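Tutorial handout. Part one gives the primary structure; part two gives the three-dimensional structure as tokens.
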Amino acid sequence: DPTWLSTNLGILTCIECSGIHREMGVHISRIQSLELDKLGTSELLLAKNVGNNSFNEIMEGNLPSPSPKPSPSSDMTARKEYITAKYIEHKFCRRLCSSGAEKQGELLEAVKSRDLLALIQVYAEGVEILEPLLESGQEPGETALHFAVRTADHTSLPLVDFLVQNCGNLDKPTGKGNTALHYCCIYNKPECLKLLLRGKPSIDLVNQLGETAYDMAKRLKAAQCEELLSQAVAGKLNPHIHVEYDWNLRLEEIDESDDDLDDKPSPIKKERSPRPQSFCHSSSISPQDKLSLPGFSTPRDKQRLSYGAFTNQIFMSTSTDSPTSPITDGPPLPPRNAGKVAPGSTLALPVSTQSPSGSSTLSKKKAPPPPPGHKRTLSDPPSPLPHSKGSVSWGNDTGHSPGERSLNKFERLTHSAR
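Part two.
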């Protein structure tokens, strides 16, 4: 697979042929690796707009038969002979112009119509790109590069880039001494200036007014051009520069990251539940996600969620209780029928209840100790004894243990019989 790019021609080549391209020199082919080198968008303009098929239709439009084009199994000698004939001698290209004047006319027409392939055609036929155009421009002595910069927009940047990389001299002035750099500042073309500065032209050249391109950008308040030139003067300009250009990428050519895909709304609309959703039982959480949530219990064994099971930022605290502890995590709920007494039944008196005669009818019986880890709740009665006098009897929801309740009933009957 071809993994090497000729940035000034907009074609790809294999690693074997890339070495021959390097030997020809950067004025013929400027080779960069797609895998090893760092490329900016400015270096991809021609690759996007030319390509091997379009380039070969021009440069191989007049191949003899049998074709001398090497195959993948050809040796390096055969490859070098063919590459030299194709790229240096332009031996196999179509010839459409019969004179130099006709070539100059086609060059002007290609620049005016912004036709990149027509420009490559006259380039292949050997047109002098730096010759002044036949049609007089804004200034006498304008070249194709001057004209392309002056009339450039975002759609014509590939054509400007081809002229920049293949004209051979970026410092050619007009009759007034203005180079292509001056033109970028006069007509405020920062994107063209980026392409020119990548080719490292002379920045300190002055025109007839004694102004450099930087002086002109400063005087005309072309802020972007001024900033780019100041970076170039200081040697801080990034050679792999980004240019503003409409790439017209198809949807399948866009490589989206996982984050971008996650941010996109799902085409499947989820129905909302008519009632509010709880934290763990939201219908938008899959069963697998539910099982991974802390404190989640299946419907088969529903129980109260432990607040200490959540360790995220919502609750800001963690519980040291073991998740396998048999002790309930929260206080027990009070009975629904608390305070209701069946007809004909008698409530047990508290321990401290006095008889009508004023003497206590019951002796204090110690209740069994509370289970370990039991916590007092608001539903429990107040302690009848100070904490310093023995253990405290917690009792059940009515204030007494079942044993005490039976004993009180028996003794009341005995007392009434007396």
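Part three, for discussion. Confidence is low (pLDDT under 50) at residues 264-328, 344-363, 385-407. Strands lie at 4-6, 11-13, 31-33.
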